[in-house]
Each structure stands twice: as C-alpha cells, then as structure tokens.
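Lab notebook page, bench 4
Experiment: in silico fold of construct C2
Operator: M.H.
Input chain length: 180 residues
Purpose: comparison with the prior construct
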Amino acid sequence: MQPNTIIEFQKGDKHAYQQLFMELYPVMCRFSNNYLYDYNDAEDITQEVFIELWNQRSKFENQDQIKAFLYLSIKNKCLNFIKHLAIREKYFESELERNEEDFDEFVLEAEVVQNIYTAIESLSEQRKKIILLSMEGLKNNEIAEDLSISINTVKLQKKIAYQQLREKLKTSVFLFLLFF
C-alpha cells in the first residue's frame, strides 16, 4: 500500500478505504477464524473492526499502525465473542439441568391443572362461566353484571361449584400435596 493511500484514507477517501479493505480483509478474516473456527462469525467480527477502523481513520499515520489496530481489535473482539458463547452455553446447561430436575414437578403440575380444568368442564354451564370468570380475576359484582344475573346468584352458584370441585379434585389435591 502506498503512503499516499494512507493520507487519502485519513481524509475520508472511500476509494482509498476500499483499496485498504480489499488488501487486508482476507488476511484479517483468516486471522479471526483462527480464534473462532467459524468463518461466518470471523467475517462478521472482521467487518465490525473495519467499520471501527473507518470511524477512527484520522488516528493512523501508516500501514503498520492500521495493521496493529486490526490485529489487536480482532483478537479482543474474538476473545469477547468466545467469552459470551461460554457464558451463554453455561446458562443453557444450568437451565437444562434445572429443567431436568424439575421435570417431575412440571408433569405433576400439568396433570393437576388438567384435572382442575376437566372438573370445571363437568360443572353446569352457568357455574362453569362463573368459575372461569372468577379465575380471570373478576369480582362477584363484575361477574353478575357480565352474566346479567344477581350478585346473590353468583355467590350461591360459586359456593355450590366450589363444593363440587372439592369433591371431584380430592384425589388430585392429595397427589399434589403428596409430592410437594
């Protein structure tokens, strides 16, 4: 690379930058790939560093400074990338272990929830609606208004529904408590 190209690059000449890029990019990609063993990631990091080079172009007086910047920046970005991958992998491994440990709990919880919804489905239509609206967080007066019935009807139907659900869910609750 000619000294004139460096001066033009410092001034922001895109042709000089392109010439510099074409000359050094393949070498820097191979260098990056020595750390990452993945050419796509190596290219991504190398491109990021070349963008940084362009943004800091006024700092460089010769080709040796440019190369030193590229090598050092690529090395640091590659090491940070590897650290990030290691942290992410460690997180996924710990999540996998936790999920494997909690598998029985997850299955039991899913079964209990299924039993609850099955029991709710067996209620009369009005009681089912009242219980489902209650589970959504609606208060008795809101349920009464929504279903166009009196608040006393809501209270009575809810009480009867809870009694029926308790009876139907005795076994499920026992199993749930047994494992927790």
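Observations: The two ends are 72 Å apart (CA to CA). The chain has a mean pLDDT of 88.
Next step: discuss at group meeting.
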